Amino acid sequence: xxxxxxxxxxxxxxxxxxxxxxxxxxxxxxxxxxxxxxxxxxxxxxxxxxxxxxxxxxxxxxxxxxxxxxxxxxxxxxxxxxxxxxxxxxxxxxxxxxxxxxxxxxxxxxxxxxxxxxxxxxxxxxxxxxxxxxxxxxxxxxxxxxxxxxxxxxxxxxxxxxxxxxxxxxxxxxxxxxxxxxxxxxxxxxxxxxxxxxxxxxxxxxxxxxxxxxxxxxxxxxxxxxxxxxxxxxxxxxxxxxxxxxxxxxxxxxxxxxx
Length: 259
Fold this sequence. Notes:
Blueprint: H1 3-11, H2 17-24, E1 29-32, E2 36-39, H3 42-46, E3 51-53, H4 59-70, E4 75-79, H5 83-95, E5 99-101, E6 109-112, E7 122-127, H6 133-145, E8 149-154, H7 164-173, E9 178-183, H8 189-194, E10 201-205, H9 217-224, E11 231-233, H10 239-258
Parallel strand pairs: 3-4, 7-8, 7-9, 9-10, 10-11
Antiparallel strand pairs: 1-2, 4-6, 5-6
Helix pairs in contact: 1-2, 6-10
């Protein structure tokens, strides 16, 4: 619908104010000079906020995007920062009196003005090895940006499978709505987890690994070939994507509970 049609429909009582808000959010694009067009109201429209992909962006551009978004939003997630720019963005955030959640071993950073409330669902997050933690933390930051509570446990891969079972019991007792499983190497952990729980599982292959099937190819292939139903898979190292899917599932489940 065009803008005038939306307004006329509200006036005529054909469209509710709630539906009109969703439709109007399609027009909420904030242009920043000649290098960015920010979808400011994406979270209102989709439940998933816009994420700044920092790779190959100039530091000055990242700063301008952060400033623009935080004029109309409480938080912003910046992903794939190199170490040099990441350190500078942290200093910049402190100057703006922003709070920072950088995660462990992560190239992503969540900046916010006021504490982000855990008003959504619950997501369980696992990493197979300690080398996979950075991608798992990327997923956690995305879930936090979407108001989800996260229950995390790292380094519980199949090389010591006995480590996994207490963690799954914890997930079940906490009634998590979705589980993210991050694994490199042979990528077996997501299949195992999805065979043991009645919860949606999102597998994230990481680029950890070497030799035949290196750089995540083996892990991705194993997850895509999984015979365990209920497992979905995102691209290699895509913690952000996994976090978005899991949080969306969890938040929808939470809305059902509230009703």
